[in-house]
Design brief:
This protein is mainly beta and 182 residues long. The protein has 2 helices and 9 strands. The protein has a 6-stranded antiparallel beta barrel with strand order 4-5-6-9-8-7. A two-stranded antiparallel sheet has the order 1-2. The chain is globular.
């Protein structure tokens, strides 16, 4: 209730996703979406982080998503939440960082595609997109989460955004269960 819904006109997934989605690293798990209606009231566009040198182990970050809030019982999804946590491994892999989950805060099932922000000189900057849990053998969302580094894909994002701006709407698959597994 109170949510603003926007119709997705089209989207484009990273070209790496189709060939790397089953891999352990560098999955290319990022897409952009063109939607109708503009931003919801009270929201504004955020700038993509350009200087990735601020992504350091222990840096304070904010994650947002609609995922479940209880990884053990798999409950609590469907509500937009945000949480402050930290970067666990900024050099995890060239295209991904790991976020800290072991302190009871982090991403879980249904948060995939959600943003990760870092503050730089008082400005909130987008640096990541929720991808998947890492080293979580019990599947409880309490070890680490991999976040795709948005700056790594900035050239592709700019080109894909231009293609989507000029494209006719394309069919978008219906999402039956928005609280799906990461």
């Amino acid at each position: 209730s109170g949510n603003t819904v926007r119709k997705v006109d089209s989207y484009e997934a990273s070209p790496y996703w189709a060939i790397r989605q089953g891999e352990e690293h560098n999955t290319g798990d990022i897409a952009i979406v063109k939607f109708s209606g503009g931003l919801a009231p009270g929201y504004q566009a955020v700038q993509i982080l350009a200087d990735t040198s601020v992504l350091k182990n222990g840096a304070s970050i904010t994650l947002a998503g609609y995922g479940i809030s209880d990884g053990v019982n798999k409950t609590g999804g469907g509500t937009l939440r945000w949480v402050d946590t930290e970067i666990k491994d900024s050099a995890y892999i060239q295209t991904e960082v790991l976020t800290e989950q072991a302190k009871g805060k982090g991403a879980c099932h249904g948060d995939s595609g959600g943003p990760a922000y870092i503050r730089v000189n008082g400005r909130v900057m987008l640096f990541g997109v929720t991808s998947r849990g890492v080293d979580d053998v019990n599947d409880h969302c309490n070890v680490s989460a991999a976040y795709t580094k948005v700056p790594y894909y900035s050239n592709w994002i700019a080109k894909a955004a231009q293609r989507l701006q000029n494209a006719q709407p394309t069919p978008v698959p219906n999402i039956v269960n928005p609280v799906a597994r990461n």
